[in-house]
Inverse folding.
């Protein structure tokens, strides 16, 4: 259903590791909608991911950059502007990692070296990216920066652990930097809070099947897929959403505003009664 709504736009897409990655879908949809993109991922993704295959498929340059390193982000932004032939119209931040979550360390016993890394990769990276884009005056007016987040920033999901704290910070950075970017450069920054999605990062969270099934039963529309998330990202990069900034936008089939669903009432009622 491509409508060329990103025709002539240039962007950078972070975080397409494999076909399941939300960023993979976003990259494909952006190109289908007429955009030119640069793909980027952590240097380690060259070994463990398939970003290279996507770059070939989309005929897009691939520049490896670690989001915790200013020099990597500097080089990425400078080279992207050169390769794409002009300033950027959109950037997708689709990056997250937590060793404490991956190694199932209880929230009450976090390893703080790992927590530093989690916050650096998953939250501060949006600030670093913003600062590099700002310093290079790399964004066109009315450009759009989107970062992906999860509702554990607002409500407790115990197994999401320190990632909840990182996501709260990420959403706050989007608001704070969004103010400055809006005022001075007419650029918008938003976070999209996505349903649980089967990806490498998602499936690393303990009890992910339960998260997924519970959210699916709770949401009037069911869980939002990676593909539909990509469509929302495209909309947020387009000129049709120019006055939306500093928002956390729920893309979750209605999960965030549902108290309980009929399906859950019935299944919990039955099990509580031993049925
Ligand atoms: N999957 C879900 O259930 C879900 C739900 C809501 C939000 N999100 C968010 O969506 C985003 C994308 O995750 P995903 O689910 O597609 O999983 P994913 O594992 O496919 O993507 C995570 C990406 O982060 C990259 N990354 C990790 N460390 C990096 C570093 N130092 N430098 C650069 N890149 C680095 C990885 O290489 C990978 O490409 C994350 O922010 C995640 O928290 C995911």
């Amino acid at each position: 259903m491509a409508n060329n709504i990103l025709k002539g736009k240039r962007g950078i897409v972070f975080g397409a590791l494999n076909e399941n990655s939300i960023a993979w879908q976003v990259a494909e949809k952006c190109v289908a909608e007429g955009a030119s993109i640069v793909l980027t991922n952590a240097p380690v993704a060259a070994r463990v991911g398939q970003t290279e295959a996507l770059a070939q498929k989309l005929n897009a340059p691939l520049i490896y950059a670690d989001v915790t390193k200013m020099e990597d982000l500097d080089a990425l932004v400078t080279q992207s502007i050169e390769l794409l032939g002009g300033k950027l119209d959109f950037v997708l931040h689709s990056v997250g990692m937590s060793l404490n979550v991956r190694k199932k360390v209880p929230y009450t016993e976090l390893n703080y070296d790992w927590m530093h890394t989690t916050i650096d990769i998953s939250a501060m990276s949006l600030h670093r990216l913003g600062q590099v884009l700002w310093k290079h005056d790399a964004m066109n007016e009315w450009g759009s920066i989107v970062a992906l987040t999860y509702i554990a920033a607002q409500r407790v999901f115990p197994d999401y652990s320190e990632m909840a704290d990182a996501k709260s910070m990420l959403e706050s950075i989007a608001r704070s930097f969004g103010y400055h970017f809006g005022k001075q450069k007419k650029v918008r920054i938003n976070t999209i809070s996505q349903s649980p999605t089967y990806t490498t990062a998602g499936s690393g969270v303990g009890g992910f099947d339960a998260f997924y099934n519970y959210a699916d039963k709770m949401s009037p529309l069911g869980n939002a897929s990676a593909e539909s998330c990509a469509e929302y990202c495209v909309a947020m990069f387009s000129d049709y959403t120019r006055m939306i900034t500093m928002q956390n936008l729920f893309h979750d089939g209605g999960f965030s505003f549902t108290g309980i669903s009929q399906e859950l009432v019935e299944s919990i009622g039955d099990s509580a009664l031993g049925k």
